[in-house]
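Sequence and structure are kept together here, with a separate record for every protein. An example record follows, reproduced without changes.
>
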Amino acid sequence: MQVHFQRIATELSINPKQVATTVELLDQGGTVPFISRYRKELTGSLDEVEIASIRDRVLQLRELDKRKEAVLKSLKEQEKLTDELEKQVNEAETMARLEDIYLPYKPKRRTKATIAREKGLEPLAKLIFEQINADPYTKAADFVDAEKQVEDIEQALQGARDIMAEWINEDQEVRAKMRRFFQEKAVFKARVYPGKEEEAQKYRDYFDWEESVAKAPSHRVLAMRRGESEMFLMLDTVPPEEDAIELLDRHLIQGNTQSAEQVKLAIRDGYKRLLQPSMETELRMISKKKADEEAIEVFAKNMKELLMAAPLGSKNVMAIDPGFRTGCKLVCLDKQGQLLHFEAIYPHEPQRQTAKAGATIKHLAEKFNIEAIAIGNGTAGRESETFVNNLGLPKSITVVMVNESGASIYSASQIARDEFPNEDITVRGAVSIGRRLMDPLAELVKIDPKSIGVGQYQHDVDQGALKHSLDDVVMSCVNAVGVEVNTASEQLLTYVAGLGPQLAKNIVEYRNTNGPFKDRASIKNVTRLGEKAFEQAAGFLRIRGAANPLDESAVHPESYAIVSQMAKDLKCSVTDLIQKEELRKQIDLKKYITDQIGLPTLKDILSELAKPGRDPREQFEAFSFMEGVNSMEDLRAGMKLPGIVTNVTNFGAFVDIGVHQDGLVHISHLSDTFVSNPADIVSVQQRVEVTVLEVDASRKRISLSMKGEAKPQVKKSERAKPKAKVQKESEGDMASKLAALRGKFGG
């Protein structure tokens, strides 16, 4: 493994010792959030992105090692393993290189070359392949043998060419050259299936399309592949054939002899029949993997922004799931998100019970001391918002439109049925809308990320890789915020470092049976929650109102003694340390350095004492769409409107402007200057100002622009003091950095 440590260290530009220590911690069951937060002395303060990159790269290299063992075992069993071959296998740095080495020895079905060898034509193939100045026809005559089914000279030469074609296909250097050539020169060629032009209208951009594989963006690659899988498009992924054959000729042909002409024929046959299909298959896999990585990176980054959206916090909330014919489902929730009341109101057509609906809202708002009203942004959302705003409610009640994407998925899920077994889907959906306003992170972890709608082609990418990436993002967000163990759902607890589904379930069951946890130490009483799980999870679990104030903070229990010693040295209590900055300023951190605890952890402790349990998310700020613009019919070209970014893709950003249909700001309209990556300009949940360019009601398409005066509103985090900005950058962008590193190490 030492060779791997050095290799990873070089790739990540870090010290091999950091890699070795990190791998050891991971192998011992350490989680990425725990190691990055509480083992900085051991890792040299590596962040989550670097630790996750080490984890994934080690796994990749271990898989390569396993494959090497299998290849060596096969070669040994075939009695073909030589010292040179063993050296080549052991030195192979990629799976592709390893498979090239093994290809000539890999057990295969009976081929044309196999049949030719059975007819004794391999010596003739060798003579011709050497391209000596000899007549191949004369040589071939010696191999004509009716008993071996070689009837004439042409059959002998054909058999020899079959053997040479296989040699060419299995030559390591040839495959390496051809692989590079395909990656640099291949083009996607998409064509519509004849007769399917009408059915395939959504793919009309690709009816007669060509573009470089190397330059094709992720969304177009995935779109073409989806069209192919749905049998609307025919798709080839090849370079110009003559250029490929010319490259092989330059590499293999040694003159103008008659033998060379036979080799040329073998090259053409070998390329068309063996090399080209093999390289095309490999390139399609590589391009798909690259497209997947880019799409997953976009999805993960968007997901992170959505999960880390500003929470309203613990407020009494009324939530409305709007509708016309079926009415609006209304629920009232307490500060912990528990359901207090539900009923249906009918303020819109066709019932139009406006007076009764208004009276109901006012009565319930007073009865339950409502502090905010959450309204889903689906059908009748804007109309319901207008209705509520015109009721004359106290100004202390904030009315907020909430993105309800995925709420219906939650309401029909087993999670929702378990939580509200006696309520119907509509009530559960309204509860989800209200809770999403209170704490987006806690509610969104209950929903399959693919149902939230912040990705591109999320159902087409590698589902295992997508889940792996999103799990990393969700775990990173959950542990960055911290979890109140006495109120958290089973789903939220699942993502706490060291726990997982079973321990999360056990925690909830213990809490339901024994009442709330009074301190962190009592968490150890949970069934099957051992010392290792406690070590990993404890620092991320909060217990509000605990006797020890550190139980509400991110200070790990293993460091409590140090904090107590600090307080003792200053002749004060731990509570005094938290409340009084002048006391904290007197602490000389160097006095508390030990073999296990160094300055990085001590600085984290001091920072946490200043703001125990600090929520890293931004402060909630209410947002309103433009009044009077409720549907696409209200839109006119040139209108300037406020909006919220709902999805960022490689080709632009989708913006909710309050008309039940998101508009697209194409990448060319995101800025007055050139933009290569939309994520550099906008992010999900960001508030922006846009200009309407075009409205296509028949296709439900809205084109928007952010050029000129339509500038994105600066997010609060971007207005923060320099110190806060540095801290945010040091945490690392888990989504984009990790995906980029994974792409770098592919192959």
